[in-house]
Amino acid sequence: MNPADFLRDWGAKVVNGDLTDPSSIPACLVGVSTVIDCATARPEESTRKVDWEGKVALIQAAQAMGISRYVFFSIYDCDKHPQVPLMNIKSATEKFLGSSGLDYTVFRLCGFHQAVIGNYAVPILEDRAVWGTNDDTRTAYLDSTDVAKMTMAALRVEAASRRTLTLSGPKAWTTREVIELCEKMANTNANVTTVPTWLLKRTRSVLRSLQWASDAADRLAFAEVLSNNDTWSSDMAETYRLLELDPGSVTGLEDYLQEYFSRILKKLKEVGATSDRTNFYV
């Protein structure tokens, strides 16, 4: 079974390409007018090889193939954190894309609702440990479906051309608030393991000294961002106006989780389980 089979079911034509193999990219762009670049390295892959070298190759191929529009997904405030490898790469890619001559739109994202499900909702339902930190960083999550709608809107309006737009949800949440929200909706108490941000930073320092663990160290670099207790959010009023979208059409995190837990708990009830049953997979 191919992971992309569901795309075929939706009527999409699927072609195979590999960002770590630049020679495979041009053939993927034949007959394509718009590139929506939402690829990134998986945990077992090199961030530099995929998110920098691979993206540079993709942008260069887009230039050569005469792509009319390139949409790139970046990270909120990536230019303010050069010490974090992935954010530094995202910032460098934005600059490279801007100087490529391509017509582009860059979206800087704060966070996705879907990540909350995997990191908090499912572990709580399975009575597994939930990992949290003691920071007060706030994140304004968005539903990936809403991001897709904003992306399509950007392709329709000329005002989004050669622009960098930050996309964020209607409310910013701390990790503690997200866990409490999941506990309330699951009607159970979470087994929370709190990891101090100083420990994450110390662990990163140790891993950086080990060549084989450099990629893991790079991912832990986000601990330095967490320790700043920033708010990952942006005023979306101008963005909604520019994209000609209704702010009321965006799903907030609370509504998203309410729908998720209502659906899952109903299924649990149907099979005679409880909300704290272990080994429940979704």
Keywords:
disordered C terminus, UDP-galactose 4-epimerase, domain 1, 13% strand, globular, alpha/beta, 4-stranded parallel beta sheet, 282 residues
What does this structure look like?
- Its main location: plastid.
- This is NmrA-like domain-containing protein.
- Keywords: Photosynthesis, Photosystem II, Plastid.
- It comes from Edaphochlamys debaryana.
- With 282 residues, this protein is α/β, with parallel strands linked by helices.
- It is 44% helix and 13% strand.
- The strands form 3 sheets. Strands 1-2-3-6 form a 4-stranded parallel β-sheet, with helices on both faces. The protein has a two-stranded parallel sheet with strand order 4-7. Strands 5-8 form a two-stranded parallel sheet.
- Strand 2, helix 3 and strand 3 form a beta-alpha-beta unit.
- Helix 2 runs parallel beside helix 3.
- The longest helix has 18 residues.
- It is globular, with a radius of gyration of 20 Å.
